[in-house]
Write a structure and sequence with these properties.
The protein is an alpha/beta fold. Helix content is 35%, strand content 13%. It has two domains: 266 residues, Rossmann fold (3-Layer(aba) Sandwich), CATH 3.40.50.10540; 83 residues, 2-Layer Sandwich (formyl-coa transferase, domain 3).
Length: 415
């Protein structure tokens, strides 16, 4: 079986998280990803949040698997020529620098098209065209400007960002789809094109149900929100704690051991179809004949009391017992799994979602593998490259330089 993107060559001009997420995904599917890094320095994340001195950090290694590293200084005369040759030989260039950075290097889109008309030039930006397009953006800024923070947090509390990297990694996933789409279009047109993903746009896409709710507000209160019927709705979608965003009443409840285990909780959804089973399980079969409880309309004004009763029952069970009892009865439920539990989960190891990788300097570590599974295209996880590890190979095999030319480029400081 061949890998899905075998034969595609990526010029990876990315750093930190959003861009590397995108190019790593392409590398997992078999693309030859050439990561360009500054000589002697490399991607800034190599040295950020280190847990072992003088070794590439987990921040770097977990975002740069299956890539080759070449060191290059395009500001030198020889470096600029090498960079131009890499553009000529690659199918896709990906970058997430500040706006205009690649242009200032002397390679605006028009010049890239001249060098390689089939080149797909993909960029992560903070904002699209508009009043903020020249602003720098980081993860939490993207969550705040894309609508996530304003709709996340305790009821009547202050805005909260989520621990999920929906700004950085989320936008990288969007960009990867854009690149693959452009590659498919190139098969028909023969031409490359620009692909751009703004982090604000990516976060807003992931918050689309909240934009849905913003429009619903014009037609009256939203009954699945905790603010109904005893609270008030303002002009914008409110924060709703752990209420379900899908229209089904749901909440996080404490489970046995919560006093000492910060993750001893479960999320339970009390949707209409599963309500009879849930009521019986928690010892409230009487609700099924009680007009105060046996219809969604009757329950809605006292959802808080419903989950108080659910919690009385879950406090007598571990979160896994709650799952094992309710799930077979088609009651939607999920234990709150800690990162420790996820790292040790055998089923995630078996599917390649959690992978152990051996690194020549830091030893073995865990990483997240490819979350997208293809039935006929393997996706292996290989360790991240050391800084400049493949410089000679890339200059020789891709750029076409001789050993003497490589030595001269090194002497000039171009690589």
């Amino acid at each position: 079986m061949s890998k899905a993107l075998e034969g595609v060559r990526i010029l990876d001009m990315t750093h930190v998280q959003s861009g590397p997420t995108c190019t790593q995904l392409l590398a997992w599917f078999g693309a030859d990803v050439i990561k360009v890094e500054r000589p002697g320095v490399g991607d800034a994340t190599r040295g950020q949040l280190r847990d072992i001195p003088d070794v590439d950090s987990l921040y770097f290694t977990m975002l740069n698997h299956n890539k080759r590293s070449v060191t290059l200084n395009p500001k030198t005369e020889k470096g600029m020529k090498i960079f131009a040759k890499l553009i000529e030989e690659c199918d896709v260039m990906v970058e997430n620098f500040a706006p205009g950075a690649i242009d200032r290097m002397g390679f605006p889109w028009e010049k890239i098209q001249e060098i390689n008309p089939r080149m797909i030039y993909a960029s992560v930006k903070g904002f699209g065209p508009g009043p903020f397009e020249d602003c720098k953006v980081y993860e939490n800024v993207a969550q705040c400007t894309g609508g996530s923070a304003s709709t996340t947090g305790e009821i009547n509390g202050f805005p909260m960002v989520t621990g999920s990297q929906i700004g950085d990694s989320g936008t990288g996933l969007h960009l990867a789809l854009g690149i693959v789409t452009a590659l498919y279009h190139r098969e028909k047109s023969g031409k490359g094109q620009r692909v751009s993903c703004a982090m604000q746009d990516g976060v807003l896409n992931l918050c689309r149900v909240k934009l849905r709710d913003q429009q619903r507000l014009a037609h009256g209160p939203m009954k699945e929100y905790p603010q109904y019927p005893n609270g008030e709705f303002g002009a914008a979608v409110p924060r709703a704690g752990n209420a379900s965003g899908g229209g089904q009443p749901g909440w996080i409840v404490k489970c046995k051991g919560w006093e000492t285990d910060p993750d001893s909780y479960a999320y339970v959804i009390a949707q209409a179809a599963a309500f009879p089973a849930l009521a019986k399980a928690i010892g409230h079969e009487d609700w099924l004949e009680d007009p105060e409880w046996n219809t969604p309309e009757a329950r809605l004004p006292k959802i808080d009391k419903l989950f108080e009763e659910v919690e009385k029952w879950t406090l007598t069970k571990t979160k896994f017992e709650v799952m094992n009892i309710l799930n077979p009865q088609n009651v939607p439920v999920g234990p709150i799994l800690s990162m420790k539990e996820l790292a040790e989960e055998p089923s995630l190891r078996a599917t390649g979602t959690v992978v152990e990788v051996d690194h020549p300097e830091r030893g073995k570590y865990l990483t997240v593998g490819n979350p997208i599974k293809l039935s006929d295209s393997p996706s292996d996880v290989e360790r991240s490259p050391l800084l400049g590890e493949h410089t000679d190979d890339i200059l020789r095999d891709v750029v076409g330089m001789s050993d003497e030319e490589i030595a001269a480029a090194k002497a000039e400081g171009a690589v």
